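Methods: example folding runs. The two proteins below were folded one after another, and each record is reproduced exactly as written to the output file, sequence line first and structure-token line second.
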Amino acid sequence: MTDKNPDFRFIGQPMPRNEDARLLTGRGQFSDDFLFPRQAYAAIVRSPHAHARIVRIEKAAADNMPGVLGVFTGADCLADKLGAIQHDPLPKTKFDMKLHGPGGTEIFIGPHLLLPADKARHVGEAVAMVVAETQAQALDAAEAVVVDYEVLPNITHSEDAMKHGAPKVWEEVRDNILVDTQFGDAAEIERVLTDAPHVVSMDFHSDRVTGVPMEPRAAVAQYDEAKGRYTIYAGSGGAVRQKRELASVLGVDPENIRVLSYDVGGNFGTRNRVYVEFGLILWAARKLGRPVKYTATRSECFVSDYQGRDLVAKFELALDERGRFLALRATNISNAGARCVSLSPLSKGAGLITGSYDIPVASLRAVSVFTNTVPTQAYRSSGRPEVTFAIERLIDIAAKRLGIDRVSLRRRNLVRTKAMPYRNAVGMLYDSGRYEENMDLAMKLADWAGFKARRRDAKKRGKLLGLGLANYVESSIGAPKEQTRIEISPDNRVEVVIGTQPAGQGHETSFAQVVADLINVPVETVHIILGDTDIVKAGGGTHSGRSMRHAATVFSLAATELIAKGKRATAVILDAPPDRVDFNDGRFMTRDSNRSFDFFELAQEMTRHKMPEDLAAGLAVITDNEMHEPVFPNGSAICEIEIDPETCGLRLARYTSVDDVGRCINPLIVDGQTHGAIVQGIGQALWEQCVVDGAGQPLCGSFMDYGMPRSDRLPSFVTKIVEVLSPTNPLGIKAGGEGGTTAAPAAIVSAIADALAPFGIDDIRMPVTPYRIWEAIQSRKTPSSG
């Protein structure tokens, strides 16, 4: 199941990452590493209430404390005419599912001011900032700021927020609904569901999680008064985008802001959108005339990092007597939180409600709702794990209720290879894939046939062993525009500027592999430059699995331009007609001369000759590309989970993942990403949840309260990379960083439900803790002796 090109020297090779030596020996450049003379420190005063009017902020006591340089409030922001963060929540490609407000209205996103002057709308919202000489002084003074609040009724669950008469997060939004969009033919779906022999329906809630990056968000800002120019060091998912957003907040020309985003200590969506603290410290640096740094505590991250998931999915599946899928009706309700930061999860999930299956007709109501909670944002695989969980769990339940083997039910409904490219019932065009082969390969690698023997062995030991399966298809789209600048230097160096922004994905290595193959130079000569907006002028950043696909495509276009320039330069140097110059095996040559040059030799020769104007700057190109076509990575996951019915503790015994990533540039890196992705999905299924009580208070403010996956709780994974090339881009790349997350929650819960089947349990809510297992068992009958 691969289509490798044997001519590639570096693409497809498991090369160790160039970045690792620097990162593992403490030579990384993370945001908190930067320290400047006269640097001051910011601390944030945060709301303790989920919803409260800000009556008065008393800052005199804090202002008079040692080392304090300033105390700033929402009123100060308004006085200085600071703007709201211009979140642009709607995906921008031609093929995204298009969302709108109720009745086709424009979507109200909720103004995101750096500091609100009217109300706090979630616990942890920044309401004031203190800047002092030291971090300790800033923290002490922040505690001395007194905020007089008028506590208001709050709402935290999306379905409760939609009820008529529920507390309003924004007065401008009726019933708190900011998005309400219908896809598909609702009348036709109703007819099919009414006439269908079987209809299976279930409601699912993928609870809220948070990104918990290794490096809490941090930034340091400077202002050069002589030049009127701001500089900020801040880890992000895209420096170019944050430059534009911060310029809008400050009301300055984007060219007057420089964003430097080097090593990023974890992202997965958490850092893709700008944070209020970044704008605040830029503003403070100008007002105070000195650098200002902000570093969040871990507890601050838990109450103010953009969070993920929180989707209610209501699915109804119609089947005929033979188990063929006839129709699907779905309602997806996304909890946007207090402001609309991103609608990517709702949009991307909307396009994939039918999953890997050939379902002739489908309809979907896609809804997004404001609540008094932290805003949600795209989180690894943005919206796809939620809908994959719903359709895969529904198939398991349908198989059980209809008395059909769950693998057979999937097999008769999977999209066939010969149907590719396949347009699903809501309009998404799947580019390529061999879904049934993926499932068969996963079953073989997982020794599906040997499970019965392993289950009997577990039973002898007094344990319950369950087997779980999930297929998935996910989409990779992302911001459509990308740019690269590639320059061949006479000193044997290729400099490649690119606008994507890594957060540990190994771009410095894998991007170099692509460029080295495209222009036939040694890979060690290729140097990737990113993260500095004075150098990187354009680019879409990293999200939605876009980086390698967009980068490799624009590299391919740039390589063609470079080779064409090289041919023209060779023609000038050898006094040959341009159409008689060839580029073969990395060398420029002409049939009229025995001389030839590689790229570096040619760059050296060009310095010795008078070149035409278009070649006077040397071998360098700037290439832009706009790509809208989505790709659809896909695969299968199988796991085995052992449960002790006495303690209700569980052990993840086996996990197998098969992932079609299209062309795989570096298998070593992709395997590592697959492992990490699986772990994030397992974390959501078994441990992670941002719990909020009825008063809107987060109950998970530290690692004492928020469960995280640990290596000693996980087995060695069996992973297999499949390469079914995509026809949408030159190298056939799909994406390799998110598939493991997409399938994992469904596979895990499938295995647990299978283990608990003797108790009559066919589903259980995530995270599946021992207590939830105990509750489920206690509520059911004693298992049968069989």
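Second run, written to the same file directly after the first:
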Amino acid sequence: MVVHQSSDAIAQFHQWLDRLARPIEFASRDAFAHLPTVKNLSKFVSSQVLGALSDRVYPKAVEAALLNLRALFVEDQARLSTEEQQRRLLQAAGIVKSLREAAHDQRDGWGEPEPLATSDSWSRRSSSRDVGTLPIRFAKGVGPRRSSLMQRLGIETVEDALWTVPWRYEDRSVMTPLGELIPGMVTAVCGTVAKSTVKRTRNRRFTVLEVGLEDQTGRMQAVFFNQPYLEQVLAVGKTVMMSGRIIAGRQGWMVPKMDVSQYEVVGEGHESTLHVGRIVPVYHETKGWSSRQMRVLIKGLLEEHAADLNDTLPVVVRARQRLMPVQEALAEVHFPKAGADLPAFELGRSPAHRRLAFEELFLLQVALAARQRSVKMEKKSLQFQPRTPLLEKLVKVLPFQLTAAQDSVVREVFRDMISPRPMNRLVQGDVGSGKTVVALHAIVMACGSGYQAALMAPTEILAEQHYRNLSGLLDALGLKAALLRGSDKASVRKSHLLQLASGQIQVAIGTHALIQKGVRFQKLALAVVDEQHKFGVLQRKTLSEKGYKPDVLVLTATPIPRTLAMTVYGDLDVSVIRALPPGRKPVRTFLFGEAQRRRAYQILRDELRNTRQAYVVYPLVEESEKSDLQAAIQGAERLQNEELKEFRVGLLHGRMKSAEKEAVMADFIAGNIHALVATTVIEVGVDVPNATTMMIEHAERFGLAQLHQLRGRVGRAGHQSYCLLMAATLGRHKMSPGKRPTGNQEPASLVKERLEALVRSNDGFVIAEEDLRIRGPGEFFGFRQWGMPEFHVANVVRDGDLLQQARLEAFSLVQQDPQLSATAHQRIKETMLRKWGKKLDLGSVS
């Protein structure tokens, strides 16, 4: 069957190649005598090659040759010299010859069913799998150049394009006739450009484009300043849609004028119905690729591939959740029907949006369920001793007793460690709740059972902090700990590596240096990862592979709302430490504007005069031309010379060498430095009980979760502590049109709302929920490497109810069919592995 399909495809390719070669051969004949008579050769060859590439998938060598052939005819032949035209024709003839040879060679991939389809169009393909893997560059109207533009929008395949939903919609179903425009009206109109003239001032630095628009009912004016290029775009005779506010024109209300907020050249024929007379989708754009072009592309893809889109969701799930088929959802989300609920579409809450969002969430939850099951089904050869004498000794050397909350989590960890399945647990607790002491108990059980343990932290400062806090206790138990950093001297590193490999070092504490090549453990049984969001799933996996399926314990001081925990940590068992150690006083938090700076400095000086210490945190290391932020370096100099001149001011930032950082931290811990000016390198891990004041400059530039982390650096003893939020540029930064608010582009009202949430509460979980509600999941995390899944449609804040339902359906499905081997589940498995297989290490599921 494959050979028959291949033969048909090759025969069709030969016919097409003969048609393409005729004008090339004719132009080259008789020493290029006929070249002047061949017109539009460039346009013909280029369009033919693009058409061929959009009709089917070829072996890689053939595809490359076709693209090289088109490259010879991208430029208009008439603009080239005669010699250059002749040279390119000779090259083209050589490529045509090689294509004929490739088509005759059955071994070159033509006989395989995957590279070559049997029909002339993708729309007849029987397998919908191609839509998920088919490069967008082969879609009609795209090609290599435009596909590179679309990659900026995250579109690599046909499926990516279909799932790139509009970010907003415009109701252009009703256009106001130009003769019915009235003052103050905000509306949309459609008409023909009757006049388009540019006027320039004498120095030619200022231009005014006057556009006259008319329809059968009347006329309208529009003026564009300093946009002379629009004279070509809004040329006379073109049909244009404009929207905006109506104001008085030069002739009063005889010819009204529009203050145009948006415009679009409509086009002609059937295509114009995509852009006016309906609810119109508006997509994110990039230079060279417009929303209008995206509409045309999506319409074509839906017409060609709707039949190929087999539904991933099982029929029973769709019925239970009352979800429409995927073809209907995609068609409706891109082109809403007349009378659709526009506000629901704008908010992403239409039935079509929710259908697509459910599928995205469902596939992720299936992946997480499969990963969790694969971990729990593993049998570990490790045998931990819950009654090791070292644990009894640990109780005696600890300078405090565990709280009830800490003790409860320690017991959960111990149960996991002595079970026959590997531990994969997350310990989530607020700043200062005692997660490290929980990890210490796990480390001691592992080492007391004859194994090694590793603790990995995201920064050298945090790794050094852990080493200082734990090495003394571990030494008292007879356990040797070592600190591994990327900045270690070669001799120190070599010594540590030898001792790790021989088992002389029982506990390794370090940064990502622990997962680098060359690091070998003798018997790694426990991997503790602190601040997991700073790493990512695959880095955690790399560390765990240093041992034979060791137990994994993840710590995080960033309170994660439940909906996010189900996505970011959905494959882990979760323990939460909610209670703080006794004697801790809540940190008092104040929000100050620039006018109240003197009061803030007075609080700071009062604490320092009371023999306490303080942090002053800046967002940047040094001044930038693109930012008006004060820098830590300049800030430290100013504080030392002015507001805090009676005290010693230190400086700590990420670009300092390790030895310099250690010296500064040692001086601060010893009390030799009274106020430490720092960047966010002190966000986690730094523990100086005598520090009672945290001043944060430009607090509006930080997320609430990060501010809460910074606030957690004080209040770590029984002293009353203070957090001073300095919002110097409150309300100064304006949002760009169409952009979601971010930490440095927020309306003043949102900035104030966020920061006041921190003033009101010391509960990290309450703050996290508020931060998530205000800023959304992307800005809540801020960095992709924190592990936040990327969705086209779903939003875990808006779609929290869908997420819970999707999780129930997914985990139930994996419980019934662990390997997704049933015929009805093959599509789920295939799509899930394509989207999440590599990201979540799902090799065992495939």
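Comment on the second run: The chain is about 40% helix and 15% strand.
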